[in-house]
Amino acid sequence: MNGMRSGKAKRLGDPLQEMEFAIHRLLINVLLLIDIVYSSRIYRTVGDFMQPALLGSAALIILIYTFYTLIRASLFPVLFGAIFMALIIYQITVFSDRAMIPFQFNVFFQFMWVLALIPFYAWTISGHRTYLLDRVVFFSTSYCGLYIILSLGQMSGTLPYGILSAITSDFDDRGTRVFLYLSTASIAYFYWLAQFKKRRRLKNLFFLTACTMAISLSLSRVFMLIIFCLSILYFINVRAWVVSHFSRGIFVVVTAYIFSGLLWSSFNPFGVFATDASGSYRAYEYVVVRREIFNEPLSGFGVPPDTKFAKPFLGEQDIFPSDLGALGAWFDLGLFGLILFIYCIWRCSEPIHLLEEKYGWPLLLSGSMMTAYGGISPLAMSAPGGATLTALIFGVGMGSRIIALRKRKPSGNKLAGEVLSRGELPHEFPK
């Protein structure tokens, strides 16, 4: 009788496990698709009415996996997410009190993508790490192809300007160009660069060329320069730690230069770029942001619901603190937010030694791009920007360490057995 019961339970368990397996993979695709549509701003070509549905769906997936992770006694990802969430809510409150306006929780959703580390962690420890990273590459590469079509359509006039106006920029002398989701283009480019270096096949060259074309069409000069430098380092076969130190060195030097204006009030670090439209506007933003940081060094200015709410305090010109890198993070998120930002920036360029090179190098190089770029933009914590890539690096990194621990010390944990049985064993990424 006991044997019959155990056999029945086993047969009953198989379909349930397969259903769970399928649900995980479905939600992987849903979350990554939502991220592409939202963070690339493509949804704006249809209408801003899509934003609540996109963010609400992503928030629901994150909430589901928060409970899923807690049930499996994995506290650190949820704890990190809770600290980050508390910080953002506090900074929203700081501005609400300053402007004497009602607290608006929906402002939090623009920072929500950092919390995606929780589902990324859950998918990693539940045996879906390889599938997750494969889908990241698929969606990133597909986005680069779509970006090329949109950019060429905009340049040739084939696509009506009214359709693309919501995702184009014509602020400076580089002309009108379609907004590029930098971190997604970066991970697609570095993946195909690694594939081409390993196997010089026509397919790898084709996708590498397409990703390079997408990056070039963005006309983002600093981004392209960083991508070029990291590509050179990778092709001359430097060690992973050299790439990390290179990007961190750039971040430290640029941040120190920008922060030097806090010591000498007569010095504006962006004054030397005043001949450029973008540089001159940053010089103006710097003066305003520096003044507010001196006024409130601990809590910063806070996070406003919209730039129009900040104008009574900052002047009639729109101020975009994200143009100023770590200084902008201090302005928005206060001193603790600045520390958290630097921690995230530092971790983004840390090699995940438990991944095979196929994914390890693209994640390291893309994370290093965000670290180096962090000197002039808090890309690692912004959406649209790079918050999802930060979450991916953190989530996969944490999950991979858990897998390694379970491999060395097998336990009676059912989830650990599922992980090992699916072949998700750690691979050593070169140091």
TrEMBL record:
The chain crosses the membrane at residues 21-43, 49-68, 75-95, 107-124, 136-155, 175-194, 201-217, 223-242, 249-267, 327-346, 358-376, 382-404. The keyword Metal-binding does not apply. The keyword Membrane applies. Keywords: Membrane, Transmembrane, Transmembrane helix. This is O-antigen ligase domain-containing protein. The lineage of its organism: Bacteria, Pseudomonadati, Pseudomonadota, Alphaproteobacteria, Hyphomicrobiales.
